[in-house]
Amino acid sequence: MFEKLNKRRRELGMSLLALSKRSGVSMPTVARILSGAQPAASFANVAAVAYALGMEVGIRQTRRAASFREQQAKHKAERLVGMVQGTSGLEEQGLNDDALRDMKRRTVHELLAGSSRRLWDD
Predict the structure, then answer these.
(1) What gap in Å lies between CA 58 and CA 16, rounded to an integer?
(2) Helices (H), 1-122
(3) How far apart are CA 85 and CA 96, in angstroms?
(4) Are residues 69 and 116 in the same domain?
């Protein structure tokens, strides 16, 4: 993305100073954004630079919401069941593989059926 912004700037023949003034973003920040040296640049700054170049920054969905929620539930279930397994192991009452799989499956189901807060909180 940063390369596209810089390519557009060069196509327009716009200096860094002009781009800085048009975008309202400091010249050092513009230079870092266009060089790719600031990959964690704020969205607002990147969007302002893009707009000043006659471009826009888009946001697109990469996964369906249900699939993303299920992935989160599986990750959280792994952590929770891992803690139970660790505790059980310390007490020499470790669970067998079938019991662990069943516990993870039930935990995923409970996380998806319950409140969103439980699903997303750490």
Answers:
(1) 23
(2) 2-12, 16-23, 27-35, 43-52, 65-90, 97-113, 116-120
(3) 9
(4) yes
Mean pLDDT of 45-72: 91
Are 48 and 9 members of one domain?
Answer: yes
Average pLDDT, the chain: 87
- State the Cα torsion 60-79-120-108 to the nearest 10°: 80
Q: Structure pTM?
A: 0.60
- The answer to whether residue 59 sits within a structural domain is no
Provide the domain limits for residue 74: 65-120
DSSP per residue, 39-58: TT--HHHHHHHHHHTT----
d(CA 52, CA 12): 11
